[in-house]
C-alpha cells in the first residue's frame, strides 16, 4: 500500500525520511502497514562547505521469533480493585496506600487514552517529576513524540476515537527517580491487571527498561528484549524505547519504528 500524506507527515516528525517511491505490498504480506523499503536514520546536517555524508540505511526487519521465556503469572486483583469500573478504579488509584510510594507522591498517575476498549495498551516506565506534578502520563516533548509515534502506527490516545491507552508500570513516582521495588511493582500490577480487564487490549507495548523487565520477567538489557514477542496475561508484548530516550538519542528512532512495525504485524 502507499503511504498517504498524513502518514508521511507523522513519520517525518518522528525523524524518518521516506524514499520517493514505496513498493506495493505483496499478497503474502500480512502486515496492516506495508514494509517501508528503507527507513533512513536521522543524520546531523553537514557544514555548508562539506559534502553531505551518505545516510546509513536501516535493514528491513524480519519476522521476530516469540520469546522462549515462560509467561509470567499476573498478580491477583485485590478485593479493593476487583469489579471497579474505570472511573471508580481511577479514584481508587488516586487514594491508594498499598505501598510506601503513596507517602511522597503529589499525584498518582492512572493513565489516559481509550475509555472502553483499547487496541494497544502502552505501559511506560514509572512517572517522572513532571508526571507526578501533573497527575498524567507523558506530557511535554516526550508526550508529543509518543503521540506522533502512535499516529504513524494508526493509533491515538487522544479524542473520542482513541485506540490506545497509556499508563505507567507503577502509578506513583519513586523517590529520586530510583527503580521501583518488587513490593511496589506487585501492588501496582494489581491495578494494571484490572485495567487490562476493563480495556481488553490486543497488544501491550512496553516502553522503557522497568516496564519491559516487569512484563517480560527477564532481567536483560532493553536492546536484548526488543525484536521479539513476549507474553503477559496471554497478551503479546512488544518492547521498545521510551520517548524521552528517543529525544536524547534520535538515531534510535529507526529501531523504534521497527518495533512499531513488529507490533502491527503481531496484531494483523
Automatic annotation (TrEMBL):
Its EC number is 3.2.2.27. SMART domains: UDG, UreE_C. The keyword Ligase does not apply. It catalyses: Hydrolyzes single-stranded DNA or mismatched double-stranded DNA and polynucleotides, releasing free uracil. One of its GO terms (molecular function) is uracil DNA N-glycosylase activity. Residues 127-261 form the Uracil-DNA glycosylase-like domain. Keywords: 4Fe-4S, DNA damage, DNA repair, Glycosidase, Hydrolase, Iron, Iron-sulfur, Metal-binding. The keyword 4Fe-4S applies. InterPro entries: UDG_Type-4/5, Ura-DNA_glyco_family4, Uracil-DNA_glycosylase-like, Uracil-DNA_glycosylase-like_sf. Pfam families: UDG. Belongs to the uracil-DNA glycosylase (UDG) superfamily. Type 4 (UDGa) family. PANTHER family: TYPE-4 URACIL-DNA GLYCOSYLASE, TYPE-5 URACIL-DNA GLYCOSYLASE. This is Type-4 uracil-DNA glycosylase. It comes from Pelomonas lactea.
Amino acid at each position: 500500500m502507499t503511504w498517504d500524506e498524513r502518514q508521511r507527515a507523522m513519520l517525518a516528525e518522528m525523524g524518518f525520511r521516506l524514499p520517493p517511491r514505496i513498493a506495493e505490498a505483496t499478497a503474502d504480506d500480512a502486515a496492516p502497514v506495508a514494509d517501508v523499503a528503507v527507513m533512513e536514520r536521522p543524520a546531523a546536517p553537514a557544514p555548508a562547505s562539506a559534502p553531505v555524508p551518505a545516510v546509513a540505511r536501516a535493514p528491513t526487519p524480519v519476522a521476530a521469533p516469540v520469546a522462549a521465556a515462560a509467561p509470567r503469572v499476573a498478580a491477583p486483583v485485590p478485593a479493593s480493585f476487583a469489579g471497579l469500573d474505570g472511573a471508580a478504579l481511577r479514584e481508587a488509584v488516586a487514594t491508594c496506600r498499598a505501598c510506601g510510594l503513596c507517602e511522597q507522591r503529589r499525584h498518582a498517575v492512572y493513565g489516559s487514552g481509550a475509555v472502553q476498549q483499547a487496541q494497544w495498551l502502552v505501559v511506560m516506565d514509572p512517572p517522572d517529576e513532571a508526571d507526578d506534578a501533573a497527575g498524567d502520563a507523558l506530557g511535554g516533548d516526550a508526550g508529543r513524540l509518543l503521540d506522533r509515534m502512535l499516529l504513524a502506527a494508526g493509533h491515538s490516545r487522544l479524542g473520542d476515537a482513541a485506540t490506545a491507552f497509556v499508563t505507567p508500570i507503577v502509578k506513583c513516582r519513586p523517590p529520586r527517580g530510583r527503580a521501583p521495588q518488587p513490593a511496589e511493582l506487585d501492588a501496582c500490577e494489581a491495578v494494571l491487571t484490572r485495567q487490562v480487564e476493563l480495556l481488553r487490549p490486543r497488544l501491550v507495548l512496553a516502553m522503557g527498561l522497568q516496564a519491559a523487565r516487569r512484563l517480560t520477567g527477564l532481567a536483560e538489557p532493553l536492546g536484548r528484549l526488543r525484536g521479539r514477542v513476549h507474553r503477559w496475561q496471554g497478551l503479546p508484548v512488544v518492547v521498545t524505547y521510551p520517548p524521552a530516550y528517543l529525544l536524547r538519542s534520535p538515531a534510535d528512532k529507526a529501531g523504534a519504528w521497527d518495533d512499531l512495525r513488529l507490533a502491527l504485524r503481531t496484531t494483523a
